Amino acid sequence: MATEKYYVPESSPWPLAASVGLFMTAVGGAHFIQQSTAPDKFQGSWGMPLFFFGLATLWLVIAIWWRDTIKESVGGLHSKQLGISYRQGMLWFIFSEVMFFGAFFGALFYTRWLIVPWLGGAGNNAMTHELLWPSFQAMWPLVKTPDGTVTQAMGAWGLPAINTAILLTSSVTLTIAHHALLQGKRGKLIGFQAVTVVLGAIFLCLQAWEYHHAYEEMGLTLHAGIYGSLFFMLTGFHGVHVTIGTIFLFVTLLRVIKGHFDAENNFAWEAGAWYWHFVDVVWLFLFVVVYWL
Amino acid sequence: MSTAATAHDDHHHHAPTGLKRWLFSTNHKDIGTLYLWFSFAMFMVGGLLAMVIRTELLEPGMQFVDPEFFNQLTTLHGLAMVFGAVMPGFVGLANWMIPLMIGAPDMALPRMNNWSFWILPFAFLILLSSMFMSAFGAGHPSAPNFGWTFYAPLSTEYGPASTDLFILSVHMMGISSIMGAINVIVTVFNLRAPGMTLMKMPLFVWTWLITAFLLIAVMPVLAGAVTMMLTDRHFGTSFFSAAGGGDPVLFQHVFWFFGHPEVYIMILPAFGIVSAIIPTFARKQLFGYASMVYATASIALLSFVVWAHHMFTVGMPLAGTLFFMYMTMLISVPTGVKVFNWVATMWRGSLTFELPMKWAIAFVILFTCGGLSGLMLAITPVDFQYHDTYFVVAHFHYVLVSGAVFTMFAAAYYWLPKWSGVMPNKLLGELHFWSSLISVNLLFFPMHFVGLAGMPRRYADYALQFADYNFWISIGGFWFGLSQLLFLAVCVLCALKKGEKAPAKPWEGAEGLEWEVPSPAPFHTFETPPVVK
Ligand code: HEM
Ligand SMILES: [Cu+2]
């Protein structure tokens, strides 16, 4: 296998520094949430600044860390074998993300196929139904919860369909950019990648608009029972990933402009592209099971 | 590190010194050492908590701690042992041994490796400190008190304020584990020396490869579970609340989808260690290498479809219950294959009983005990009786303490010569072994009986008829706990290089690349990959 030397970096302060950042983010985050959602129980307001300070530290450190890596890469220290390590690492990271979404999709199916019918008396649950909430009616989307909260279901064929089209288009433009990268056509690459980033941004704006509509006009909120919980958790985490993906693609776009990548040396670029396609596929599942069916 | 280092990187082989060496490390051996000491520290912390539990349970009635605090003790004991002692302990062994075993210069992603480690102390600082802190102005201070399984609604509606800190610390442990696991997989797939084909890899490498896959698959699910907890607690969602159309049982499904593979995460590397040690001291090839690999893989795959055996009493539909019962029983087939292979390896071997072998044999016998009680628990109607009794506590301590933890001792006695360059002290080691072996059985065996007789787990008090057994269980507990100080002494002596100097290969029957480098292993090994025939 390997004949050239595998690059083992010298010691680095960034992992420890990033851990400190993560620590502050976690402690600050827990208190930020407590202090902002239950101010009567949790006095003080130091959670928020600590959280943002921690987060800023974390990202700053990671940025410096990656800058080191980029320098090594540009300086030619990275062997082909190291490139493979990075690639495999990224793929496994995406697999972990798949499993993270899997937990929420699993919750969705379990709710829809089992919990809601059971609360409505299906199977051997006639007594559960009778004793707990006799007037509850099983249905999906669950627009009236057992304790009587009422909401509306988000239809599939308005904004969500447009957003689907946007993400699908962005996957196509990104693939064109990818081919341009491999063929060394810089102009085409920059153009199509820029279009992809813009499409990602449009997607996010439309989603923000959708959320606004849901909260203000439909009564569809996090508090609206299990349907709202699942809706916002799934689409929300997806939105977070689109945000990360857009930033990722934007950064690699800048690096393209700086001339960091070519047909061989392009790990970060491809990692961003894989991430984008992954986010895209998650959306397709979301569209089908959250909005449509 | 950066450009400064780039120029002369190739001729730059001295080990960094002082604090910087440990804090900023990118060396798999140093990071492995950090993991191992951290794991041992958590083992002591968790052990201390357990001794307080056993003090309270020494006699019936309430003596030392109030029940509220008792619940915090059981919770933190479980969390510290699972996430602090056992998991990081095996990661430490992986860090030390995998590159040495496959002829790699280091782990594939050394800086990320260090990050995986340094997240852990902070995560446990958050978790354990909640025991001491007043909950920031929110009533009576309390650490998490809902058991290591943190079932909703105990942890959502009724959880103390520190629950939110707990959630965030679990997220951190998850990040750490996932990065550690990615590193292991990439190292194994990408950094093997020429000629080290997959089916030549030592079983420890194989079992860790599969463990790492399990980690990447289920730690994110755990993250999902605690995230839903967090939003249920603070953002008004109804995942685990039936009034909003959710279900507390949903929590159990998500948790155990993580939780059952998690128990295999804690035992597969142990299988790998035993499969390295037994052939060495039986002076025979491992019996059935390929079947061991396939058995490990099938255990891992099956572990995804047995989770609800922890939930037989929640009222699942009959078909579901039966499915999970049969699947669980099916797992004992590959597990049996393994036990059979270890015994067959010893069969007519030239056995000698050095310390690592003693621990390994104790493991085979006692782990099998735990597997058998597991089989009893897997029978649904029987589990209706045993569930949430001390029988379950006996089961999982047999597989985890005399299983996973014993193999970590075995591994330490086996590889300490390689790590430190000196042989572990024999006298202390023998004392440690026999003392632990007797006390662990005194501690856990009677739990079977009180469990069968109906003593429930997680209570600060118990009915009078359980008094005698509990007295002896507590004695066993203190004895086992104190015995571990002997191990501490062994490790400190090795760290101080006090002892007989170890040769490169201290065990005559040992095979593998790790024995071809000097003892102690130099700071950098296999910078040019060895060729494996
Ligand atoms: C032959 C293999 C095994 C079988 C059939 C088995 C079966 C079971 C069953 C049915 C339970 C649930 C009991 C109840 O709560 O009523 C259980 C609990 C448990 N098992 Fe096993 N088990 C096996 C091996 C293992 C191994 C290898 C480990 C870990 C190394 C393990 C760790 C645990 C733990 C930690 C619990 C208790 C979780 C809790 O409620 O706190 N088991 N086992
Ligand atoms: Cu299980």
TrEMBL record, chain A:
It is found in: Cell membrane; Membrane. This is cytochrome-c oxidase. Keywords: Membrane, Translocase, Transmembrane, Transmembrane helix. It comes from the Bacteria. Belongs to the cytochrome c oxidase subunit 3 family. It is an enzyme of class 7 (translocase). Its EC number is 7.1.1.9. Its main location: membrane. Coiled coil: none annotated.
From TrEMBL, chain B:
This is Cytochrome c oxidase subunit 1. The keyword Phosphoprotein does not apply. Cytochrome c oxidase is the component of the respiratory chain that catalyzes the reduction of oxygen to water. Subunits 1-3 form the functional core of the enzyme complex. CO I is the catalytic subunit of the enzyme. Electrons originating in cytochrome c are transferred via the copper A center of subunit 2 and heme A of subunit 1 to the bimetallic center formed by heme A3 and copper B. It is a multi-pass membrane protein. Its EC number is 7.1.1.9. It is an enzyme of class 7 (translocase). SUPFAM superfamilies: Cytochrome c oxidase subunit I-like. Pfam families: COX1. It is found in: Cell membrane; Membrane. Keywords: Cell membrane, Copper, Electron transport, Heme, Iron, Membrane, Metal-binding, Oxidoreductase, Respiratory chain, Translocase, Transmembrane, Transmembrane helix, Transport. PANTHER family: CYTOCHROME C OXIDASE SUBUNIT 1. The chain crosses the membrane at residues 34-53, 73-96, 117-138, 165-191, 203-230, 263-282, 289-310, 322-347, 359-379, 391-416, 428-451, 471-496. One of its GO terms (molecular function) is oxidoreductase activity. Residues 22-533 form the Cytochrome oxidase subunit I profile domain. Pathway: Energy metabolism; oxidative phosphorylation. The gene is ctaD. It catalyses: 4 Fe(II)-[cytochrome c] + O2 + 8 H(+)(in) = 4 Fe(III)-[cytochrome c] + 2 H2O + 4 H(+)(out). Belongs to the heme-copper respiratory oxidase family.
